[in-house]
């Protein structure tokens, strides 16, 4: 009798979950699984010292282009987002490409630094998502001004990216990553507001938007991680250049002594 009583109490609680609550939970649950798969693959590759990026027959930006095209297809063709074979194929493709792209960073930094970066990025991503989900919208991006700013930044990002690919300039690559990092800081709270149904501009359709929102959460987290890793590599590069430039001076001083 006690078991029946408890089951009767639990069953209505489960049934009372509205579609929006299930939608939000599914986004974070699936997103965490995808992030866990990628991080687990990176840990395995670091432990086995396997450099998968060396076996790619094309530059790493091709992976980013594939991810971009997949997300465009899922946005423009909603049926792809909720038909099981298509959505899981697209999701798997995005995860594989993102994991391979990240291999360029995990082998250039020490495991300790990677661990600290992962923890720091996780905390920042949680904070940005929490602010988008809970903070008063008056203090959050998502209005006309922030939308126009994002469009302007996207235009500049595209131009800088094309010029960088044509010239191979390291300075332009630094600029590209900096702009992308700024866009992520603005975009993550906006996306969190959408995920929680707080944006009145676009109506949330859980079945249609679930995988798109999940992959957006996943990609935002990964791109934020990549940007932070890149900034660390830039600092190391500048430090190496500084030490190299100071070495001849020290050598000359020793010669005079």
Task: Characterise the protein shown here.
It is built from nine helices and no strands. The chain has 257 residues and is mostly helical. It has one domain (22-240). The model is unreliable at 4-8 and 10-14 (pLDDT under 50).
Shape: globular
Low-confidence stretches: 4-8, 10-14
How many DSSP E strands? 0
Class inferred from helices and paired strands = mainly alpha
- Supply the number of helical segments: 9
| Count of domains | 1
Beta content comes to: under 5%
User: What is the makeup of the main sheet?
Assistant: none
Overall pLDDT confidence: 83
Between the first and last Cα atoms, what is the distance in angstroms?
Answer: 95 Å
| Helix fraction by DSSP (H/I, runs of at least 4) | over 70%
Rg measurement, Å? 22 Å
What is the ordering of alpha helices and beta strands?
HHHHHHHHH
